[in-house]
């Protein structure tokens, strides 16, 4: 018969073993969920709307992020995270732990990508880019929700870089871009110079889009704006090549030919006086400001010098000489 002290030693040994085993398990849990990186590579983890904590645990197991869904669920309940995790797509970086991913889900810190609306590009360029991307949801019919009473959304989206939640609808970003443009346009219109030949802020936007396409040089924007204003006041056709190009079929950049000038399009400002019916590009704040505050000069003409800049003239004879001069330079190159 075993002596009482031997029973005590056995019980102490068993208890010590259990404590060690439990300590080891706690250490393992700590390592797996709080210390060790959950993955060696970047992963996108998508949590569908309405997912329960249990479903999340199996999604993470299927993506080899965790080994035990049961332990993961127990931790979520212990830390009271079970009902606070938000749906969406989350980026798991190589240095992230399982728990840092959980904290992202608790904050709703979904994976976001950049959407750029670039000044000088056209609406068709943006539609093509959005349609080709698999990073978010877009259909051209979304534009109908923004168009309101306008013939086109051209020029009505403010150029900038916007943050877009991965896999989600791009419509909120488009609404933000439209709202931002409207705010800036209204602000600039209210502070415009007097005696401009524009009857509405939309006409100012149309003029600004022409400036945007004519030059990328900041110092020239207000000069070109002045030419537009002078021609409109004199009733002269604007004769701006970018408007003609906009009226041609297709979305690709084209080099105008002589026959293009003869096309009877509403955007052909060689054939039709006044502004074209809509903007012809996305417009920067700089071009809006230039349209609202043109340089007051007598210039009626300008010609491209071949280096991105332009030469401005008052008389048509000066313009013809300038054209011949830069044609010779272009042909020589």
Secondary-structure map with pairings?
Blueprint: H1 4-35, E1 43-47, H2 53-62, H3 69-78, E2 88-92, H4 98-107, E3 112-117, H5 123-132, H6 144-147, E4 160-165, H7 171-190, H8 201-214, H9 218-234, H10 241-247, H11 285-292, E5 301-304, E6 310-313, H12 316-332
Helix pairs in contact: 2-3, 7-11, 8-9, 8-11, 9-11
The computed structural class is mainly alpha
* SS summary, helix count: 12
> What gross morphology would you assign?
elongated
- Order of strands, widest sheet: 1-2
Ends: how far apart? 111 Å
Uncertain residue ranges = 20-29
| Helix residue percentage | 40-55%
Element order: H for helix, E for strand: HEHHEHEHHEHHHHHEEH
How many β strands by DSSP? 6
Task: Please tell me the overall pLDDT.
Answer: 87
Radius of gyration (CA) equals 32 Å
Whole-number total of structural domains: 4
Largest sheet: 2 strands, antiparallel
Oligomer: single chain
Strand proportion: 5-15%
Can you offer a commentary on this structure?
With 333 residues, the protein is mainly alpha-helical. The chain folds into 4 domains: 76 residues, 2-Layer Sandwich (Dna Ligase, domain 1); 74 residues, no CATH class; 108 residues, no CATH class; 33 residues, no CATH class. Helix content is 48%, strand content 9%. The chain has 12 helices and 6 strands. It has a two-stranded antiparallel sheet. Strands 3-4 form a two-stranded antiparallel ribbon. Strands 5-6 form a two-stranded antiparallel ribbon. Helix 8 crosses helix 11 and helix 9 crosses helix 11. The longest helix is centred in the first third of the chain and has 32 residues.
């Amino acid at each position: 018969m075993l002596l009482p002290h031997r029973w005590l030693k056995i019980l102490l040994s068993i208890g010590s073993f259990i404590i060690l085993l439990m300590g080891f398990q706690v250490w393992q849990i700590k390592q797996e969920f709080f210390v060790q990186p959950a993955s060696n590579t970047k992963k996108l983890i998508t949590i569908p709307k309405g997912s329960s904590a249990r479903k999340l645990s199996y999604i993470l197991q299927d993506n080899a992020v965790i080994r035990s869904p049961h332990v993961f669920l127990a931790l979520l309940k212990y830390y009271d995270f079970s009902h606070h995790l938000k749906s969406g797509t989350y980026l798991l970086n190589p240095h992230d732990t399982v728990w840092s991913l959980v904290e992202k889900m608790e904050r709703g810190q979904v994976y976001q990508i950049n959407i750029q609306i670039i000044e000088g590009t056209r609406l068709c360029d943006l539609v093509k880019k959005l349609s080709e991307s698999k990073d978010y949801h877009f259909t051209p019919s979304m534009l109908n929700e923004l168009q309101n009473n306008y013939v086109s959304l051209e020029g009505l989206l403010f150029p900038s870089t916007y943050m877009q939640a991965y896999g989600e609808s791009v419509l909120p970003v488009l609404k933000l871009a439209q709202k931002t443009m409207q705010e800036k346009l209204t602000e600039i219109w209210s502070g415009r110079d007097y005696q401009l030949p524009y009857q509405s802020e939309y006409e100012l936007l149309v003029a600004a889009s022409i400036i945007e396409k004519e030059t990328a040089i900041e110092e020239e924007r207000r000069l070109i704006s002045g030419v537009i204003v002078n021609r409109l006041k004199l009733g002269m056709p604007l004769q701006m090549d970018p408007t003609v190009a906009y009226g041609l079929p297709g979305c690709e950049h084209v080099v105008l030919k002589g026959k293009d000038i003869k096309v009877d399009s509403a955007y052909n400002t060689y054939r039709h006086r006044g502004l074209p019916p809509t903007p012809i590009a996305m417009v920067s704040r700089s071009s809006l400001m230039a349209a609202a505050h043109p340089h007051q000069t007598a210039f009626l003409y300008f010609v491209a010098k071949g280096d991105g800049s332009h030469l401005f003239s008052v008389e048509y004879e000066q313009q013809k000489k300038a054209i011949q001069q830069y044609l010779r330079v272009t042909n020589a190159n």
